[in-house]
Structure formats: structure tokens, C-alpha cells
User: Which sequence fits this backbone?
């Protein structure tokens, strides 16, 4: 899908660079999907700033913070951790845990079973 930006003063369209999107408020944001997860890399008031930051992230080869990978699909609420996954547009909970380690363990099981409840139960038995 090609994205364009409309310039009111010149009444022209300009093609937006890859990974850069324009918000409704006029700001530009950098987004990229890595490993099936859509990551947000920041928003900027001008297209030039967004392009400058995109070049920086390209130079870093889009490295992801390791703590983000560790907590993927895990939400922390108070002192509990919830394993969640968005399936068919709905957020589905796969359990609540007291420690991050047990939540990560359950999340890894869910990923191995491709987030299928029936396969998860068979895997754990």
C-alpha cells in the first residue's frame, strides 16, 4: 500500500518514505513490524525529523530492546502478570501469574502451541 501526503499550499501529493506514517494531527511516526509485532519508534513534528530518525534506526539495523522481547504478550497489573494475545481483533487472556518468570514460561508454551487453547492443554498434561 502506497502512502501519500497532501500539501495544502502547493496542492500536490508526495509519496511518504517506507515505515513513516502521518497521523491525523499532522505529526509523522515511524512504525515497523518485527517478528510479527508492530513496533512504534517515535513520532516527530516534521517529515525531515522522522526521516533522520529512521536513518538512525536503519543504521542500528532496527535493534529491539531485549526487555521488550522478554515481556512481549505480557501485561503487568499491580503485582500480577497477565499473558494476553490479540486474536481476531479481540484480546484474549491466557492466565494471570504472580511472577514474571512463570508468565514468561506460560507465554513460551502458548507460542509453541500457536496460541491454540486445545493444544496448550494437551502440551501441559
Assistant:
Amino acid at each position: 500500500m502506497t502512502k501519500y501526503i497532501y500539501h495544502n499550499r502547493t496542492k500536490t501529493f508526495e509519496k511518504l518514505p517506507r515505515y513513516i506514517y502521518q497521523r491525523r494531527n499532522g505529526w509523522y511516526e515511524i512504525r515497523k513490524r518485527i517478528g510479527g509485532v508492530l513496533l512504534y519508534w517515535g513520532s516527530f513534528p516534521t517529515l525531515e525529523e522522522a526521516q533522520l530518525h529512521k536513518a538512525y534506526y536503519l543504521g542500528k539495523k532496527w535493534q529491539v530492546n531485549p526487555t521488550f522481547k522478554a515481556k512481549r504478550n505480557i501485561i503487568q497489573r499491580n503485582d500480577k502478570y497477565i499473558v494476553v494475545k490479540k486474536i481476531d481483533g479481540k484480546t484474549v487472556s491466557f492466565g494471570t501469574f504472580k511472577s514474571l518468570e512463570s508468565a514468561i514460561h506460560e507465554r513460551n508454551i502458548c507460542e509453541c502451541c500457536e496460541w491454540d487453547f486445545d493444544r496448550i492443554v494437551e502440551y501441559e498434561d
About this structure: The chain is about 30% helix and 35% strand. The beta strands are 4-7, 12-15, 20-22, 28-34, 37-44, 74-77, 80-87, 90-97. Residues 68-124 form one domain. The radius of gyration is 19 Å.
